[in-house]
């Protein structure tokens, strides 16, 4: 048996200059949030992060249970989460904590409900606003409550960065490392129809944990630390990881235009991808890169520019032909409009010209399945 990653969530800071989702804090409240497990095991442990906090974070109580639906849990599965034997923990500014093992067997595909009681007034939380799940917030210590009627419903995930599971030797684990096309913007909230979810439906005994950050870039800090900066923490340090699946580039090429700056140069993106491949191989990982998805129809002002789209085409031709990666998932061709390949195919477009809907996310997953078999 070994501890491996059963769930991951790559969080961002509340003080960044550009925030795609509004941060928030808590005061004397319980936060209950759903964590969909990619893989299961006989026991589990929870990871909490205050990575981007400026003040210590006190968690007065924590419990985990199998979620029944919404804010309801299955009461007989409810377990206390302890840290160093204590029911309360203080996470230092910039720090993370891992819980003691929790005696709860869980299966792949199970939804855990993690309930945290935050007794004091917190600063804005280390979070993601694009979890594709609803968090439930109630006043007082209600971590043991079977349901939270009347709770405030909040889009996002707060402080919870991972769940490890105690599993048999054998399953291989991939990290989906990239941007919103992994995190799942554009897919149906709460329905688990992201490309990573589709992969987990199809992989059998192996699985993929999701380290996508919406708005994240490969080369430049802005929405989260850039991919090269966070790679060592978010990929090779994940217990059990054997593969890394990569999708970056849209935000490097598009987001600068929102503030009147030029897109990343193709040569710089190629150098960044090359460095990413080197680091993956140095860590003993198999790296599978996706071609950069189309985004010419983006409704957001400044994102779609002739310069950026031309760079995308150059980078994609290099990804397809360079031989730098162990395999290439041609996501761009899988989801592009055949009549105008800079655009997403209409039936795969979430409606904003930049993100995939449920059908598009499935096509993205199938592009990866066509070239990599974790089994």
TrEMBL record:
Cited Gene3D superfamilies: SGNH hydrolase
Pfam families attached to this UniProt entry: Lipase_GDSL_2
Domain of life, per lineage: Bacteria
Keyword Cell membrane: no
Domain SGNH hydrolase-type esterase stretches: 176-363
A GO MF label: hydrolase activity
Annotated InterPro entries: GDSL_Rv0518-like, SGNH_hydro, SGNH_hydro_sf
Keywords from the UniProt entry: Hydrolase
Annotated signal sequence range: none
Protein name in UniProt: SGNH/GDSL hydrolase family protein
């Amino acid at each position: 048996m070994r501890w491996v990653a059963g769930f991951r969530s790559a969080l961002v800071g509340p003080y960044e200059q550009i925030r795609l989702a509004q941060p928030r804090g808590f005061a004397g409240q319980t936060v209950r949030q759903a964590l969909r497990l990619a893989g299961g095991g006989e026991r589990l442990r929870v990871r909490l992060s205050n990575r981007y906090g400026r003040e210590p974070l006190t968690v007065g109580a924590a419990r985990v249970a199998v979620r029944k639906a919404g804010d309801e849990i299955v009461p007989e599965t409810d377990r206390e989460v302890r840290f160093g034997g204590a029911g309360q923990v203080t996470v230092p500014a910039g720090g993370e904590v891992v819980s003691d093992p929790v005696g709860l067997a869980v299966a792949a595909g199970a939804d855990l409900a993690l309930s945290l009681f935050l007794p004091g007034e917190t600063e804005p939380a280390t979070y993601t606003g694009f979890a594709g799940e609803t968090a439930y917030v109630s006043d007082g210590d209600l971590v043991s409550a079977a349901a939270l009627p009347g709770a405030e419903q909040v889009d996002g995930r707060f402080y919870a960065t991972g769940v490890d599971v105690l599993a048999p030797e054998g399953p291989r684990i991939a990290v989906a490392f990239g941007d919103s096309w992994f995190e799942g913007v554009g897919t149906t909230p709460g329905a688990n129809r992201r490309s990573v979810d589709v992969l987990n439906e199809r992989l059998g005994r192996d699985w993929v944990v999701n380290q996508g950050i919406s708005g994240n870039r490969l080369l430049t800090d802005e929405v989260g630390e850039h991919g090269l900066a966070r790679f060592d923490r978010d990929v090779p340090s994940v217990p059990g990881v054997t593969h890394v699946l990569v999708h970056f580039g849209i935000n490097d090429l598009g987001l600068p235009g929102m503030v009147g700056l030029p897109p990343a140069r193709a040569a710089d993106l190629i150098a960044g991808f090359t460095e990413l491949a080197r680091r993956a191989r140095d860590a003993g990982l198999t790296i599978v890169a996706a071609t950069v998805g189309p985004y010419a129809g983006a409704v957001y002002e400044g994102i779609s520019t002739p310069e950026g789209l031309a760079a995308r085409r150059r980078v994609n031709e290099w990804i397809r032909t360079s031989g730098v990666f162990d395999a290439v998932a041609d996501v761009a061709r899988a989801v592009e409009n055949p009549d105008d390949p800079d655009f997403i195919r209409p039936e795969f477009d979430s409606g904003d010209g930049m993100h995939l809907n449920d059908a598009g996310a499935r096509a993205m997953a199938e592009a990866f399945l066509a070239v990599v078999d974790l089994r």
